[in-house]
Amino acid sequence: MLTIFDSSRTRGTTRREMLRIGTSTIGGLSLASIFAAKAGAATGDGVVKDKSVVVLNLQGGPTQFETFDPKMTAPQEIRSITGEVQTAITGVTFGGTFPKLAALAEKMAVVRSYRHGISSHGPAAMHVMAGGNPTGAMMGALYARVAGLTDSVTGMPENALVTPSVVGSQYKSLYHNVGRVSQTGTLSSVYKPFDPSAGGEIIDNMRLVLKGKRLDDRRTLLHELDQLRHRFDADSVVESSNRFQQQAFDVLIRGVADAFDLSQEHPKTVASYDTGGFEPTDAVKKRNSYATQFSAVALGKQMLLARRLCEAGCGFVTVTQGGWDMHGGGKEYTMADGLSSLTPAVDKSVSAFIEDLEQRGLSDKILLVILGEFGRTPRINKNGGRDHWGNQCTLAFSGGGLKMGQVIGRSDRTGSAPATTPISSGNVLATVMHTLFNLGEVRILPGIPTDVERTITGNQPIQQLV
Q1: Does the pLDDT value for residue 13 go beyond 70?
Q2: CATH number of the domain that residue 447 is part of
Q3: C-alpha 394 chain-centroid distance
Q4: Which three-class secondary structure state does DSSP give residue 3?
C-alpha cells in the first residue's frame, strides 16, 4: 500500500495530506502501464455483467465426507468422522461441524458428482483453478483478459488474490501456495491476480513525502511515483502515454485502497466473520508439526475483504486457506486435528459471508464457489487420515443469481465416484463465465484471441444452476 505524505505538516492528517493507494503497482508495473495493458484488452458494451465471483480455495484437498457429503449409511471406516447435521433442505445433511451452513442450505447449491480424476497436488490445483481449459490460465486471468485489468470506474484490479498475509502481517506464517492458484498459462503474465502481499516489505513500506504544493502538481507526483517504482524494479521498461498517466493519477485520488481497510467495517460485522478463536489447541500443536501454519484464524477477515473488493469493483477474487491435506501418521496432520479447527472456521466465515451479502442486497451480484484441488479417499487410512482422491471432489456454490437450495448429482454408496452424470471442471468454468459475461457478446467481440473466446464460451454450465 503506497502512502503519500504532505511534509509541510507535522501533526494530523487530511485526505489531501495522506493518500493511501493499494493499486499503485501490480507485478512491478506502474499504474500507467496497467491502463495501457487494459487498453489492449478487448472490451465492449454489454459484455461484462455487473457481477463478481469469489472462489474459496481450500488448499490441500478438502474432504467431501466431512463437508457436504457425510455418507453416514456407509461403513464406519468411510463415513464422516464428524457425523452429520440436518440442513434446511429436507433429507439433506452436511458434515457435523457445519451447523451454520446447514441452516443456510437453501441459499447454497452443493454438487456431489464433481470429478476430474487428478490426484497430484500441483496439476490438480491448477486444473481446478483453470476449469480444465486448454490455455492453462486460471479463471480470473481469463476474466481479466476480456474485462480488462482494472475496473473502469474505481480502478480496482479485476483479478485479485487474498492470502492470509493480505489481511495482516501477523498471518504471514500461515500456509498459502500462490503458484497453484494464479497461473496465466498461455496468456500474458500481466493477467496474474493482484496479490497485495507479493511485495512484502516493499509494498508495505512504499511511501512518498512531498510538500503540499508539489502534491497538487500532477506531473511532479507521477514523476515521483515513477522514480519510486524504478527503485524496486530498475530493469522494468514501461511504455505509456500522457493519456494513461492521466488515468493513473485519476485512480490515485479515488481512494480505492479504502477497500483493503477492514477497520472501516462496523465492529459487529467484523465480529460476525471473526475466526480468531479457531486456533488449534496446544495439544494439537505439540504433537503436530503442521498445526500452527494450517490455522484458519485469518479466514474470516479474508472473506470479509473479498466482499469489500467485490463492492469496490473487483470481478474475480480468490481466497486461499490451507491445511486440508490430512493424511495422518506420526507428526502429520490427522483428520481429527485438522477438522477440529478448519471446518468450524469455514462454517462461521462462509455463513457470515452469505448472510452479509443477503443483508446488503448483494446475493445475486456475487457468486461464491467453494472447492479445492481434489477430494479425499473414501476409507480412513491406518494413520487417521484420508489420502488424495480426484474421482470425487468437494464443490459448492452460493449466490450469483443462480438456482440455490439444491443438491446436484449423487455420489456412489461409498463416496468414491459420481453415481450420476459427472460434473466436470469445464462445467464449473462455464458456470463462472456464464455468471460474469453475456456470452453471446463475447463471441462477437473483436480483439479476443480465438482460443480465449472458445475457452470462455465453449463449455456447458451446470444446467441445474442456470
Answers
A1: no
A2: 3.40.720
A3: 16
A4: strand
